[in-house]
Specification:
alpha+beta; 26% strand; single chain; 227 residues; 11 strands; globular; two-stranded antiparallel ribbon
């Protein structure tokens, strides 16, 4: 059973988003939370079913997802990897909803992901220029023009849409504004959600964060690993 503080925070997320959607009838881009599954609504019992415990972390414990509700192919797992990328490279397969961290010996750690509703808005090569632990979130000016109710700034925490960790993607010195980050919406893994960033389960982004280095190459592609 998830701790009451975390569960109450997750219930507030669902309630707030339902109210926002009713008022707007639309969603905005780039790491913005997406429309909740109608079956979830603000039902605390249903939210609780998605969680099976807590993983110690600082300053917040990470809610662990009940994997029985997640397609097994999206579970974190080590797999054979046919690509030629160097170990330490992150490969995002948009169409199949997988992120691979390439390892030695023809292997990779594979994670299930959620991507943008119309496909990831950006593809190509980038690098991880910086990382964040329970990162803050500042919606872009364009996002706030579309939805004035969005905060100018939101501190990191259980309710923050960036989740437990974020990896910030740059091309040269330019911030692409796209992130690989956690999510407090585990039901969105495997789905094409809002136009925006790549999202992993919070427990998975913590695992990925612990394995990668600043400066690591990231390649985002369509059409599978052969693209």
């Amino acid at each position: 059973m998830i701790a009451s503080r975390a569960l109450k925070g997750l219930a507030r997320i669902a309630t707030a988003r339902l109210s926002l959607l009713a008022a707007l009838g639309l969603l905005v881009a780039a790491c913005q939370p997406h429309e909740p599954n109608p079956a979830i609504q603000a039902d605390t019992g249903h939210l609780n079913a998605w969680y099976s415990g807590l993983m110690a972390d600082d300053p917040y414990d990470v809610p662990l997802v009940n994997k029985a509700l997640l397609d097994r192919k999206f579970h974190r797992q080590r797999v054979d990897y046919p690509g030629r990328e160097a170990p330490g490279t992150i490969v995002v397969d948009i169409d199949n909803r997988f992120l691979y961290l390439v390892e030695d010996g023809g292997k990779a750690m594979r994670y299930g992901i959620g991507v943008g509703r119309n496909g990831f808005a950006w593809r190509g090569d980038a690098r991880i220029a910086r990382t964040g632990v329970w990162p803050n979130w500042s919606p872009t000016d364009n996002m706030r023009r579309i939805d004035p109710s969005l905060p100018v700034h939101m501190e990191g925490g259980i309710e923050n849409p960036l989740g437990a960790r974020a990896l910030y993607l740059y091309q040269g010195s330019r911030d692409t504004l796209f992130r690989i980050h956690g999510t407090n919406e585990p039901w969105s893994i495997g789905e094409a959600v809002s136009s925006g960033c790549v999202r992993l389960l919070n427990e998975d982004i913590v695992d990925l964060y612990n394995r990668v280095q600043v400066g690591a190459r990231v390649t985002v592609r369509r059409g599978g690993l052969g693209a």
